[in-house]
Structure formats: structure tokens, C-alpha cells
Design goal:
Length: about 500
């Protein structure tokens, strides 16, 4: 047995039931993840996947669709031997998830597949559906006895975002599903937490003695978190009109990154210990209300512009978008964490669509030395050191520091010490769903959000939501292909700081 096999044991038998199996998420993320896990030898041979959607389809037609989708997404990777090995594990049933008879048929089909494939009664249910169906589907599963566990088998439910649209709705959804499920059965998925570089944040902080002593307000000046996309709403205008950048990105993706950067050292990397420390950070975020929102939060909406010489339409001209829409496609904010470690350290967050570059990264900027001996030299100033954690697309870590330029005169310059996953390990990290599905099947919940984490994320932005409801016109335009509204730069410049410059 190899070291990798010891570190990553096989899952054990299971049946995965995917609601919304004919949709884009299943096609682009879930099915490829299953194939990748099988390819890497991480799935038990006694597994099965049952897809459910309204569309009428036989098992054979579903299997042909999966093959066609995989060949479209990853040409040449699906070999004949993989087809022969994997495709018989996939099954399908059509059904209206709002009707009780669907779940009666599902129970019978699960029993049939269990007998055929030897899944041992273990099952997870993946809700790749509209958020309005989360509670009804879970209640229907409960009524049919499909999510009750025994000493012989486990049952789990994976729930996609958005988990609610504000604090009240998130609390209600938690209460609804907890009437049917124990918290240890609920896997609220955030694919950002499955990304290799995100998982590496805790390792970087707590496994390296060179960083741990300096990770506080004594040495860190500020932190910047950027999640920038070049894409627009891409046909999802109807959804985005109800979500906007704030709801879509901040309480889940970005605040999860912030919690990993700012958390205290956990007792272990176990699920409860990790999430206990993360939720403490989220609860310590200083609420923004009223004028504080106006001063510390910028919201924008993309107008027309160009990216890679391609002319792009304004958000208001996108399909299924109100021509007078006041929905934000960009948010930047300045947050504070009220605890001893981070008092006085601002966290600058920004996310937006139709920006100049696709990039997700965290910049930790250290304070300048309190004293330097270079006052009577040609050196005018020293640039601050930065630790840059790149999550996508070029996954890696960069340490920026100052060094002397070779030569007679004392000249200094900034240099980067670079680590890239693809260069060192020979392959790029997975997108996230592989690891998250693997962990769910094995009952490892560390990378999934707990109920209190979800609610704490919504609570952190509740004042912003309230202010924007009162003042919906607090919106500024920015050109597609830019880095967002100019007003966002002021969040840093008024503090005497500069945002990360991309070229």
C-alpha cells in the first residue's frame, strides 16, 4: 500500500442520489468528480449513483449522456476501460420532487440498487436543486423514512448554496431541516472550501514556525481578499437579480476565507475543533450599520466595456435583467474583527463580475520595520513585505520581500519567492468537488459549514442588507474590463494603504 493510499483510504460502499441530475451542476462538477475519485482509486467497488430529474430518461440514455458530457468536458480522458468499469454504476429515474409518489418510487429503486450493487444501505442525497426545494425535498425524504439512520448504515444530505437569502431565512431553513436531520447528517457545501489552496491556509499557518509567531496585529498591517471574475451573469440574470454580489459571495465564499485566515489555532484539524474556531471569527466581525455602511462598503454594477478586445454589454442589458436594475455586481468593504489578535487590523474584501482579470487571492501585508538604518542612503522608502496566497487560477503562494540590487550603490528592490502547485507537484489542484464528495461519503465534515457558521455569516452582513433596502440607489457604475468603481480604492487610500495592483 502506498503512502497516498494510506492517507486517502477508499470510501466504503454507498449510493449517491443526485436531485437535479440533468442540470449543469451535475454535468460540470458532480459527475466529473465521481469519475476523478474512481480514477484515483478512492471509491469502493460497491457504489452506485442514482440521478433524479423531471426529464424522462432510461438508465441507458442517462449513461450515454454522462459519456457524452465527459467527452465534451475532458476530451480523451474517458478511456474505454473506464467506461466499462464505471458506467454500469449509474442509474436514473424521472420524477417530480414535489409529489409524494416520487419518493415512494425512490425508496423502491434504492432498495433495488442496494441489492444489485451491494451499497450496504449507505446513502447520501445531493440537492442540486432550486433553494426553494431544499426544505420540501428533505421533509419528503423524512416522511418516506429515507434519511433515518441505523446502526447498520448512514444517511446524509448535501445542500448547495445559497443557504437562505438573509439571517432570518437561514435560521428558518436550519430549523426546518433540523427537524428531520441531525446536524452530523447535514453537509452544507461551499466548493471554495474544497480548493487545495484554501485547505492549505491552515497548514501554512499552523505547520510553519516562521509564520505562526507573526500572525497578529503586532506584525500584520492589513489583509486583502479579492475574488474577481471576468465573466458576467452568463444567462443567470434571473437568479442574480434576486441575489446580487453581496448575497452570492460574501457570507459564504469570502467570509469562509476570512475565517481561515483569522482563526485561532484549533485543538486539532477535526471538524468540530476547526469549525469552533472559524465561527468565533465570524461572530467577532464588527457589525456595519447606517452611516458605517456608507463609509465602509462600496457597491457597483458593471456597464459596457471590453475584455480581450471583445465588446461587452452592460448588466442592465443582460437577459432576464430589469433594465432599471439596482442589483450590485461588485462589492468592496472594510471590515474589523473585534478580538485581541486582530484589533486595529482592517480586512479589505472585494468581489465583482466583469473585472479585468480572473483571480482569487489573499494578500497579508506586514508592517514596515519600526526603524531602518537606510536614512542616509539612496533608498527613499522600504516597501512592506507581503504573503500572497493565490487560490485561482495560478494556485500557489508568494512571499514578497526586499533585497539589495547587485552593484556598487545601495539600491533595494522587491522580489518574490514563488511556490506553484503545478510546478512542484506536477499537476494542478482539483477544483474542489472531488474532495468534498469524498469527505461527505467518509463522514468527514471539516470542510462543510455548520448551522452556526451559516447564521454568523448572514449576521455579519445583516446591517449592510438593511441599509441597502432603505437606500437602494447607493450604487455606482464601473466599466466592464476595469477593476471596479474608483470609489473602492478610497477604502484603502484614506487609511494610507494601497490595494493590490494587477498587471
Amino acid at each position: 500500500m502506498t503512502t497516498a493510499e494510506k492517507d486517502h483510504p477508499q470510501t466504503g460502499p454507498f449510493l449517491g442520489v443526485i436531485f437535479g441530475a440533468s442540470g449543469d451542476l451535475a454535468k460540470r462538477k458532480l459527475m466529473p468528480a465521481i469519475f476523478n475519485l474512481s480514477r484515483d482509486g478512492l471509491l469502493d467497488s460497491s457504489f452506485a449513483i442514482l440521478g433524479i430529474s423531471r426529464k424522462e430518461m432510461t438508465d441507458e440514455a442517462f449513461r450515454k449522456k454522462i459519456i457524452a458530457d465527459m467527452e465534451e468536458l475532458a476530451p480523451g480522458e474517458l478511456t474505454e476501460s473506464m467506461k466499462e468499469k464505471l458506467i454500469p454504476h449509474f442509474f436514473y429515474m424521472s420524477g417530480d420532487v414535489t409529489q409524494a409518489e416520487t419518493y415512494e418510487r425512490l425508496k423502491a429503486r434504492m432498495s433495488e440498487i442496494n441489492q444489485q450493487c451491494g451499497t450496504g444501505g449507505n446513502a447520501f442525497f445531493y440537492l442540486a436543486t432550486a433553494p426553494t426545494l431544499f426544505s420540501p425535498v428533505i421533509h419528503a425524504l423524512g416522511n418516506e423514512g429515507l434519511i433515518a439512520e441505523t446502526s447498520d448504515y448512514w444517511r446524509r444530505v448535501v445542500i448547495e448554496k445559497p443557504f437562505g437569502h438573509d439571517l432570518g431565512s437561514a435560521q428558518q431553513l436550519n430549523a426546518d431541516i433540523q427537524r428531520e436531520l441531525g446536524e452530523d447528517q447535514i453537509y452544507r457545501i461551499d466548493h471554495y472550501l474544497g480548493k487545495e489552496t484554501v485547505q492549505n491556509i491552515a497548514v501554512l499557518r499552523f505547520a510553519n514556525g516562521m509564520f505562526q509567531p507573526f500572525w497578529s496585529n503586532l506584525y500584520i498591517d492589513h489583509v486583502q481578499v479579492t475574488v474577481a471574475e471576468t465573466l458576467g451573469v452568463e444567462g443567470r440574470g434571473g437568479y442574480y437579480e434576486h441575489a446580487g454580489a453581496l448575497r452570492d459571495m460574501i457570507p459564504n465564499h469570502i467570509l469562509q476565507l476570512l475565517s481561515l485566515i483569522a482563526m485561532e489555532m484549533p485543538l486539532s484539524f477535526g471538524a468540530d475543533d476547526m469549525r469552533n474556531e472559524q465561527v468565533k471569527v465570524l461572530r467577532a466581525i464588527r457589525p456595519l450599520e447606517g452611516e458605517d455602511v456608507t463609509r465602509n462598503v462600496i457597491r457597483g454594477q458593471y456597464g459596457p466595456g471590453t475584455i480581450d478586445e471583445k465588446k461587452l454589454a452592460a448588466y442592465r442589458d443582460e437577459e432576464n435583467v430589469n433594465p432599471e436594475s439596482l442589483t450590485e455586481t461588485y462589492v468592496a468593504m472594510r471590515l474589523a474583527i473585534d478580538n485581541q489578535r486582530w484589533a486595529g487590523v482592517p480586512f479589505y474584501l472585494r468581489t465583482g463580475k466583469r473585472l479585468a482579470e480572473r483571480v482569487t487571492e489573499i494578500v497579508v501585508e506586514f508592517k514596515k520595520p519600526p526603524f531602518t538604518p537606510f536614512r542616509e542612503t539612496t533608498v527613499e522608502s522600504l516597501e512592506p513585505n507581503q504573503l500572497i496566497i493565490r487560490i485561482q487560477p495560478d494556485e500557489g503562494i508568494s512571499l514578497r520581500f526586499v533585497t539589495k540590487v547587485p552593484g556598487t550603490l545601495l539600491e533595494l528592490d522587491e522580489v518574490d519567492m514563488e511556490f506553484r502547485y503545478a510546478d512542484y507537484f506536477g499537476r494542478a489542484p482539483a477544483t474542489g468537488y472531488d474532495r468534498l464528495l469524498y469527505d461527505c461519503i467518509r463522514g468527514e465534515a471539516t470542510l462543510f459549514r455548520r448551522a452556526d457558521m451559516v447564521e454568523a455569516g448572514w449576521r455579519a452582513i445583516a446591517g449592510i442588507q438593511a441599509e441597502w433596502e432603505v437606500n437602494p440607489e447607493s450604487l455606482t457604475d464601473y466599466s466592464s474590463g476595469s477593476w471596479g468603481p474608483a470609489e473602492a480604492d478610497a477604502l484603502l487610500s484614506r487609511d494610507g494603504r494601497q490595494g493590490r495592483v494587477y498587471v
